[in-house]
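In this section we walk through a basic example: taking a raw amino acid sequence and producing a predicted 3D structure, encoded as discrete structure tokens. The instruction is simple. Fold the sequence below.
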Amino acid sequence: MIFDSNGSTTVVFQEKTTLSTFLQNLNDAYPKLKNEHIVVNLFSFSKLTSDDVLEFLQLSDTHKKNNKSFVLVTDKVSYDDVPDTICVVPTVQEAHDIIEMEEIERDLEL
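The resulting token sequence is shown next.
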């Protein structure tokens, strides 16, 4: 698993693994990441479905309860195909933009 930290945001990705292994590794590493905004880059997975993305829902919900952002990055699944409770965007730049907007919302207590 590869971690790319920049300020209070960590981009997480991994090459050559299954989605279930990646998710397990992410859950194992979560205690180290729980105080960071997390961007999960899923571009190394050539085939993803909305059901695959929903596997991250519990971790996303847990992280958001700590007032931190959790964003999945993939162009294989549209944000329209998943519930509003999980954030999916097509690029890493958009993930950073979402985090910035969510930080502003938290600061304004919206």
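Looking at the output, two observations stand out. The CA atoms of residues 3 and 12 lie 5 Å apart. The longest strand covers residues 2-6. In the next section we compare this with other chains.
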